[in-house]
Design a protein that fits this description.
Number of helices: 15
Radius of gyration: 22 Å
CATH architecture of one domain: 3-Layer(aba) Sandwich
Shape: globular
CATH superfamily of one domain: NAD(P)-binding Rossmann-like Domain
Helix content: 25-40%
CATH class of one domain: Alpha Beta
Strand content: 25-35%
Distance between the termini: 63 Å
């Protein structure tokens, strides 16, 4: 197939937009050029001549010379209007806006189908790791058992700096922002919203499940404290923000939470701004992807890969959406966790089905053990600023846990 010429209308010239401009200039063989760049701030100084820019989105969206719109702005609402209009005009789109895609996935699917225009968004999930394309093309729904990983480079950078350099959470966050790793609104990263949006997108490509982001339970690293850090150090663990989607019977357990990672896990060695994703199949066992998860060039490289794919008329087929309509999110599973809470909320300990450890000191308690996930997802205490939930193991169906415990007791 002959590669077609790509003429780009670019929205946004921040860290990633400038990175894309640089990598495109370094790859003349791609046969892609930026026709115009639309930006919002007319008075900001920029490193390339001003004739490259426009301040009016219609100059790109209704420009017949532009056949691909690349959307790289922060504002999810404005991004959706840009992408929607572009698809309605029959233009292919590349986006890195995970919040926009996760919140509007159903409508974006319909727009692609109605107007026969592709939307690609590899950069929205794991930056330099091609996880969406692999899920689309390689892993059949019936053969895929689980997907878990570190899919937010900013929080991984912060946790690494806190652990290795012994600096505070706020100092590590400031470094991440200074280096362009963190979102302009850092709460999107540290409170787990960014990873949840990415997991929402990955659920569609991994298991064919379309949900709203608010249907996926999440927690961030902002509540992790000294007690959790000491516990991890004593046990030889590392703390990571981990997103997980695991098939359990006819359901899929999906959540984003901090996790104590043991040294025999591949995620243990994923540090700094890197992402790591482990995909498990029924017969192929586990496969691992590792790469930079934030920054100008890693993200721009994923955008570039999508642009290259569009030059060969590639589009997502969303095959798994039609494979098993029974498969849906479930809260009916048990999870091994560490929960830290103030002593005036000691009732939290009673929520556990099985307790492994119970520690009380200086006004605080923590309990480790097995708890039904619905008690976390539906319990008001789990959303308290003074309560921290950290995962210690993989989810299991409740009856499987009970059988394992009976076997242990009989030995």
């Amino acid at each position: 197939m002959e590669r077609k010429k790509i003429k780009i209308g670019l929205f946004g010239f921040g860290v990633v937009g400038k990175g894309l401009y640089d990598v495109l200039n370094a790859n003349p063989g791609l046969r892609a050029e930026i026709v115009k760049i639309c930006v919002k701030n007319q008075h900001k100084e920029r490193p390339i001549p001003k004739e490259h820019f426009t301040f009016y989105k219609h100059e790109l969206l209704y420009n017949d010379d532009v056949n691909v719109i690349v959307e790289l702005i922060d504002d999810a609402d404005a991004a959706f209007e840009i992408v929607k209009t572009a698809l309605q005009n029959g233009k292919a789109v590349v986006s890195a806006n995970k919040k926009m895609i996760a919140e509007h996935l159903t409508e974006l699917l319909e727009l692609q189908k109605t107007h026969n225009a592709p939307l690609l968004y590899e950069a929205a999930c794991c930056a330099s790791i091609p996880v969406v394309r692999n899920l689309e093309e390689y892993y059949d729904n019936d053969l895929l058992q689980s997907l878990c990983g570190i899919i937010n480079g900013s929080t991984n950078y912060i946790l690494t700096k806190m652990s290795e350099d012994k600096i505070s959470f706020h100092d590590a966050l400031a470094q991440a922002q200074q280096l362009g790793y963190a979102e302009s609104n850092p709460a999107l990263d540290v409170e787990g919203f960014d990873a949840k949006n990415k997991l929402t997108i990955l659920l569609a490509h991994a298991f064919g499940i379309i949900v709203k982001p608010e249907e996926v339970f999440h927690g961030g690293i902002q509540k992790v404290g000294e007690l959790e850090s000491r516990y991890a150090k004593e046990k030889g663990y590392k703390m990571k923000l981990v997103a997980r989607a695991q098939k359990l019977g006819d359901g899929v357990a999906a959540f984003v939470l901090p996790q104590f990672v043991k040294n025999d896990s591949r995620l243990f060695h994923v540090d700094d701004v890197f992402n790591g994703v482990e995909i498990e199949g029924c017969f192929a066992d586990k496969q691992f992807f590792n790469g930079r998860g934030a920054g100008a060039f890693p993200t721009a490289s994923a955008v570039l890969s999508d642009i290259s794919a569009l030059s060969y008329d590639y589009h997502y087929e969303y095959k798994k959406l039609h494979q098993d309509a029974r498969l849906q999110l479930t809260e009916n599973f048990s999870l091994e966790v560490f929960i830290r809470f103030p002593q005036d909320k000691s009732f939290v300990a009673d929520e556990f089905d099985v307790v492994h450890e119970h520690y009380r000191s200086g006004g605080w308690e923590f309990v480790t053990g097995r708890i039904h996930f619905s008690k976390i997802a539906r319990g008001e205490w789990a959303y308290d600023e003074d309560v921290s939930v950290v995962v210690c193991g993989e989810p299991s169906l409740q009856h499987e846990v009970l059988v394992d415990e009976m076997l242990e007791e009989s030995q």
